[in-house]
Amino acid sequence: MRVQEGLPQLEDATFITDGGMETTLIFHRGLELPHFASFVLLDGEEGVRALREYFRPYVEIARDAGVGIALDTPTWRANPDWGERLGYSADRLADVNRRAVRLLEELREEADGRPPILVSGCVGPRGDGYQVDETMTAEEAERYHSPQVEVFAETTADLVSALTMTYTEEATGIVRAARAAGIPAAVSFTVETDGRLPSGQPLREAIEQVDAETDGAAAYFMINCAHPTHFADVLEPDTPALDRIRGLRANASTLSHAELDEAEELDAGDPVDLARRYAELRERLPNLSVVGGCCGTDHRHIREICRVWTKG
Predict the structure, then answer these.
(1) Model's pTM, two decimal places?
(2) Domains in the chain, please, with CATH?
(3) Alpha carbons 31 and 233: distance in angstroms, whole number
């Protein structure tokens, strides 16, 4: 069932997510993901099987804990620029985005409500995701991302999630595109070790700017691809921006983006320590209801996070 209004995570229902899809598939499964693009796996039976096997442990964790799970399609790189690098035409990209939703829809049908599964169409940045190269205006970003967002709006996806946003104009454009297409949108910013976006803008100001330029159209905001130690100290209490953060998908590693980019081995950190840090953020982020992982995390981290989050 498609959620048109009243997303359950906005009603304080707890949802977990999966972990670091690409890092898991590369470092734990030994798969080749050109340009960090997992959507290419949808073009072969073995790739589809690998994606199913990747998602299922997370579904089981949610079922065992009695919570919901929000699954993002493996389409973080499935936009025109990255698609062109990989030899995908606009039509092929549209098709692969549809098939990505269908894959998660099949998992939802298999679960039959246990656990509740939300399907999110994942929209990634036009650029690198770790740094700001060429930027777009909000109007340019809306035009650029609209084709992918519109495809998701035509499917059974419950929402779109803009992950690893590095500057506000791109996030604003995606929210506007989602509003025009009639599908809810969540925006997830990444931050550097100083708690600022790669653009240099403070997190609070970024959230406030997107809300101001979209009339508050984003369903909620998230933080991803950063360790809790990078942003815990910049979460200012009693601010409207803080109340808008409902999701967290942290990295396992405390390394900076630059350090991670140069690393040849996976830094999986400590699942128990990461979960403890999530628990410590509960008071700082009172509306946090979507908890999961990003680079370096896998089902072990999510199981620990889920355990501490649902404890008591």
Answers:
(1) 0.96
(2) 8-310 (3.20.20.330)
(3) 37
